[in-house]
Amino acid sequence: MLDESKNGELSTEGNIHINKLKSGNLVYTAGKNVEKVHVNTLVTPRGGRYQLTLADGTQVWLNAQSSISYPSAFRGSSREVTISGEVYFEVAHNAAMPFRVRSENQLIEVLGTHFNVNTYKAKSKTKTTLLSGSIALTNAHQRIILKPGEQGIVAGESMSIKNVDPAEVIAWKEGYFDFTDADIGSVVDELGRWYNVDIHYQGTATSETFTGRIPRSWSFEKVLNLLKTFKSINVEMQGRRLIVETK
Length: 247
Known about the structure:
It holds the Pfam family FecR. The chain is about 10% helix and about 50% strand.
């Protein structure tokens, strides 16, 4: 487990060095003559987050229950990684070697920029939010270009763009949940993922929404008390399972 590893150099792969900083950040550095490149996968559990610096200097933050597969060093004409869950990128600029992010149903192409990708299965949509720079999203049928402040949404074979508040989208990176007119199911799913609680729904979906900012440092008991104030649901803990029943 990385969290249990001591700070300092963790491994050396040829001319590639892997270090863990005091902050917990995992940093890859690669020399000029790298003979063998390995593909690594980093997975965060429920309730966990992790920060990673790739060999090209790109900064990566992983939200809870997310993963990234990446080479220990980048070679060739492009830099490519594969992700699931929710991941925020600050890509190191290299016009000669475009950066690409693959997820289940889309490909993101970028030269150097800051963006967030949310591919959580429960949402049945992939949402890519651009904070700065420019990126292209491609699926099997379409290609769209995003501008800062825009979010590209891939749902099945369709793609669309809408304007969003980027600060709200990346609140998880800053240690908060930030909801604006979010449906109760989305709120509960998000909280369950962070607090490692299985959600079991009873009854039909509710039309109630929630707006507010919740620190991720809150205890689950405090969050549970907040959920109990919602007018349209009853909540009850049974072991590690949260029962959500529509009133």
